[in-house]
Design brief:
- By secondary structure, this protein is α/β, with parallel strands linked by helices.
- It has helices spanning 26-40, 58-75, 85-91, 105-111, 124-134, 160-168, 185-190, 200-203, 208-219; strands spanning 12-15, 47-51, 78-82, 95-98, 116-121, 138-143, 174-176, 195-198.
- Helix 7 links the parallel strand 7 (174-176) and strand 8 (195-198).
- Mean pLDDT is 94; it is low at 4-8.
Length: 220
Amino acid sequence: MIDTARGAAFRLYLITDRQATAGRPLVDVVAAALQGAAASGLPLHRVAVQLREKDLSARPLLDLARALRALTARAGVALYVNDRVDVALAAGADGVHLGAGALPFTEVARLAPKLALATSVHSAAELEAARAAAGPGLAFAVCGPVRDTPSKRQYGPPIGFDGLSKAARLGVPVLALGGIEPSDVPAALRAGAAGVACIRAILSAPDPAAAAAALCRALL
């Protein structure tokens, strides 16, 4: 397993969506993205992948998790599984990403004390609540949407870089999510983000390796 104590240093957090790959196999697209990240010069221990396929039942989700675990382990990249503590444990993942409706942080820490804990928030207030609930076990939080993005409109208007900055000041490493392009990275880092999270910017790109390389170069 990856040393998840370094989770605060993650620069790129690639979140999966197999519906966003233009019909290409998800594992192949993630593999290309990791090749691009490696070519950028960004150390791969500063990259993590989150398996987030909420429509899959346990068996196919575990199969996909194991395929991604093999890929990420070879690359030296951390793997987080969204919500499913059982799948994260069975696949040998490094952590679990807890969203709304997931098990409480304290229960996950009791059941799987070796899994790193991450979460998603949409404001500084939500991050403050998550930090209070998780205590020191919270490795990092994805925060956004920073810019407008179709998949995040249900969560309200974009928080902008000001909202990102408010969350970053709380002391938990935050990763900016939502319409982030390489040209936005300097502003995200100035706002206090530890790095960025993305889905379609890489998975939907005609050349995922080139898209990942460009984003990672901006994060160096």
